[in-house]
Design brief:
6 helices, 2 strands, about 170 residues, single chain, mainly alpha
Length: about 170
């Protein structure tokens, strides 16, 4: 039995036949857009809430984390710059996830959008074969690897976002 996809389901608008770079960029942008969709229409209080009793995660924590990951992989690894931390890191490496008491949706998303814009600028000027080095370890990562990893990073966290959103207001993702 097959089920026809919803006409509004944008996954099926992704290019079915395209070169590798177009596919990687399109799939990553789809994941980024999905993050926004999963948080749409919620108040700051709801975005900061930790709706799953067994978890300390919040939707704003996920957005802050993904902003940090965007900065790390594109600016530090691929571009080789030292952009600094987005958030004051303490002994808690996961502080961006947890320290959301004063965070707001508009402020957090503005920061995330700045990091995404920087990532897009960096990626647009380099080939997929460009290799950067991980600060501290020197491990090599190609832009192809970074784009693929970022798709995976978003996809994993979007699953968490689906569970949190459903616990907040019953809305489920696509």
């Amino acid at each position: 039995m097959s089920v026809a996809p919803k006409a509004s389901d944008r996954r099926f608008a992704l290019p079915p036949t395209a070169d590798e770079r177009t596919l990687l960029d399109a799939f990553l942008d789809f994941q980024r857009d999905a993050l926004v969709r999963k948080c749409d229409g919620l108040s700051d209080e709801q975005l900061r809430s930790r709706p799953v009793p067994s978890s300390a995660l919040s939707l704003l924590g996920l957005v802050r984390h993904l902003a940090t990951v965007e900065r790390w992989y594109f600016q530090a690894v691929i571009a080789g710059t030292s952009p600094g931390d987005l958030f004051d890191l303490t002994d808690d490496f996961d502080a961006p996830f947890h320290d959301v008491a004063d965070a707001t949706g508009p402020g957090t998303f503005a920061l995330w959008r700045e990091e995404v814009a920087a990532s897009r600028r960096i990626a647009a000027t380099r080939s997929l074969d460009t290799v950067g080095r991980t600060p501290g370890t020197g491990a090599e990562r190609s832009l192809r690897w970074v784009l693929t990893h970022m798709i995976d990073e978003y996809a994993r966290h979007l699953g968490q976002a689906d569970i949190m959103r459903e616990a907040i207001d019953g809305r489920t993702g696509e």
